[in-house]
Amino acid sequence: MTKSNTVLIISTLDTKREETRYLKYKFKEIDVLPLLMDLSMRGKEVSHAELTPSHVASAGGSTIEEINKSKERSTITNIIIEGATKIAKDLYAAGKIDGVMALGGSTGSLMATDVMRALPFGIPKLMISSTAALPGLSTKYIGTGDILLFHSVIEISGVTDMLANVMDRACYAMKGMIKYVNNTLAATNKKTIAMTMLGPCEQCASFVRAALEEKGFQVTGFSAAGVGDQAMEKMIAQGFFQGVIDLAPGGVGEHYFGYMRDGGPNRLESAGKKGIPQIISTCSVNHMTPSRSKYKKEFHERPRYDLDKFRTWLRLSPLELKEVANEFARKLNGTKAPVKLMIPLQGWSSVDCKGNPTFNPEEDRVFVETLRDKLDSNIEIIEVDANMEDPVFSQRVIQTALEIF
């Protein structure tokens, strides 16, 4: 007998009871088992969910009675999210759920997507939200998660024909994802490599990827603009990759200084903790992207390069380069797997080349010499007399990759 697929539905029955009931019946109608988790914090009616608010509060280290009495909304919300996350991760680890769906407004969407982002890449995640199009909220909902955000357009309030149509489409989409797509990516036996990519080193990234794929590797690229490289670190920690080619680790400095391409606090750490080999280069490391609201007076005097009408890169000072190098060393030292730092001596990207205002290889030496002084002796620094976008540099990366992966 074929096992039915199970979808975890996350909802708040105190505000979305009728709509959630419709979802459950629709899933049953199309031969998908619904498992309902209720995140209500103020409901007085009996929940009737398989995973009640009491279950969720208990998993979060509290009780529903304490939740109901508390006036500290942010505190109890975090408790509920923590409990729901623990339950969802345990269910997934035990093979009891095949996908996750939720519906809600702004608060419900924020809570449910927090839970979704804690689950591994590949498990279907679908959020029906009436606030998906509000400025700034969609990025908070998705973050580093592979979440399908379904904008309901209309408010989730009463099962009208229009809302039923939205929920029907969402249910069939979820059934298709769990029935027809292999969602057990972490179990692959392929030689998998994570690689950061960015426009100013795109030629190098493309050359390296194509060459390694010819050798039987599977190379997955991540845009190193802040969110993509945060997602990469998370997926490295989850065991998806056997090696890393980090061409554009500028998010380390961006996090240190609090700028726009912030790679997060764990940037450049996951591979070392996981014990997998890595090649690291320097695209964008000698540039910064502060938001206009954080511009200091002296920033207007910095060497700069306008990538386009929306993005400007400013040159880091020698002192800032030294600080970023110290961060690199702090994060990389202690790793047991091979680490190769590859420095292109004729510029660290297509932006960083002769004739451009931010090109200054003499100042870049501050970064390199600080690394020499601070890094563990087993971490090799390889200097290549070429620009990062020169085929000579790409060939050296490929050669090094074939040696250590």
Structure description:
- The chain is α/β, with parallel strands linked by helices and 405 residues long.
- It has a 6-stranded parallel sheet, sandwiched between helices. It has a 5-stranded parallel sheet with strand order 2-1-3-4-5, with helices on both faces.
- Helix 1 packs across helix 7 (161-180).
- Helices cover 41% and strands 17% of the residues.
- The chain has 2 domains: 6-180, Rossmann fold (3-Layer(aba) Sandwich), CATH 3.40.50; 188-404, Uncharacterised protein family UPF0261, NC domain (Rossmann fold).
- The longest helix is centred in the N-terminal third of the chain and has 21 residues, at 73-93.
- The two termini are 43 Å apart.
- The protein contains 14 helices and 14 strands.
- The chain has helices at residues 13-29, 53-59, 64-69, 73-93, 106-117, 137-142, 161-180, 202-214, 227-237, 251-257, 270-274, 318-332, 361-374, 391-404, and strands spanning 6-11, 33-38, 99-104, 125-129, 148-151, 191-197, 217-223, 243-246, 278-280, 287-288, 304-306, 312-315, 339-344, 380-384.
